[in-house]
Amino acid sequence: MTETLLDVSGAQLCAETFGDPADPAILLIGGIASAMDWWHDDFCRALADGDAPGGPGRFVVRYDHRDTGRSRTDPPGAPSYTGDDLARDPVRLLDALRLGRAHLVGVSMGGGIAQQTAIEHPGRVASLTLMSTSPLTGGDPHADAGGPSLPGPSPEALALFDDPPPDPDWGDRDAVVRHLVEGERAFAGPGYDAAATLETALRVAERSIDPAAAANHFLVESGPLRGTLADVAAPTLVLHGEDDPLFPPEHGAALAAAVRGARLVLLSGVGHQYPPRIAWGVVVPEILALTAPGGAPRT
Fold first, then answer.
1. Which residues form the AB hydrolase-1 domain (predicted)?
2. Are 17 and 96 within 8 A, CB to CB?
């Protein structure tokens, strides 16, 4: 496990790698306002180790978005970048790591970014795994824009948007940790792991240059999308929680239908969240099958 700061256009991004750089590369793209720590260490190692004794592993890369973790951080309320920068950072990271292409695994906003990368930079994408996200139809890769016919968030999720909890005292680490934990719990499914969430929240609070700056993601805007999901040629896997309160499962089904040959796998007990440990027995083998040398067959 190696952490490094990489220079990209207009920023330094903190990235961490697992496994052998000679193995197929997997780039993990996180959700809005979240640091790379939400991709659990053990999950990254499971992907890096591969699924068979003596079989090929994976070179797994996770990174802090701008304004999260140890990546470049602007003052809260004053981001110096655009949504297009967030969407282009995966390719910039691949350039900095001297990787020609990678298997992209994106969750929520990261799923939108992965979709945009596959549409606009197809030569850099070996495959797509899209989790807890929705078909990208507009120019905003972190809005996860579903079509008007798709169901909206649950009443409980809508209530959180209409009346969000107050910001914590950002100088009080314990208050920040509670804020992060409550934010994750609100969107998780029945398989919510309180201990693991607390562990990750503590790490995020300790690693972040300024945890308040992560909210800058909600302020940035993007230009129009240069293409559609019909243009995606990369083998695609859609993983979606059956209990997602933000994007009900119909969003995953619509996404799988929009990408030619995509495979949809619904996850029991999972909400709108990074894959919890209870789902790893499904998620890890599915990703490893898709990213195996030669690729998984498309259905």
1. 24-272
2. no
What is the rounded distance in angstroms from the CA atom of residue 250 to the CA atom of residue 247? 8
Three-class secondary structure of residue 72 per DSSP? coil
pLDDT tens sequence across 41-88: 999 999 999 966 666 899 999 999 999 999 999 999 999 999 999 999
Tokens representing 82 are: 């655009």
Tell me if residue 225 falls in helix, strand or coil: coil
Mean pLDDT of 256-269: 96
In a domain, 17, yes or no: yes
Instruction: Confirm if 105 and 131 have CB atoms less than 8 A apart.
Output: yes
Nearest 5°: CA angle at 157, between 150 and 166?
145
Contact at 8 Å (CB) between 71 and 12? yes
The sign of the CA dihedral 192, 238, 66, 141 is negative
Note down the domain range covering 120.
Answer: 2-291
Report the catalytic residues: 108, 244, 272
- Rounded to whole angstroms, the Cα distance separating 94 from 113 reads 14
DSSP alpha helices (H): ranges in the chain?
41-49, 83-96, 109-120, 155-162, 173-187, 194-207, 249-258, 280-291
Query: 102 is written with which tokens?
Result: 């990678």
Residues paired with 18 in a beta bridge: 60
Radius of gyration of the chain (CA): 18
What pTM value is reported for the model? 0.94
CATH (domain of 160): 3.40.50.1820
Number of domains comprising the chain: 1
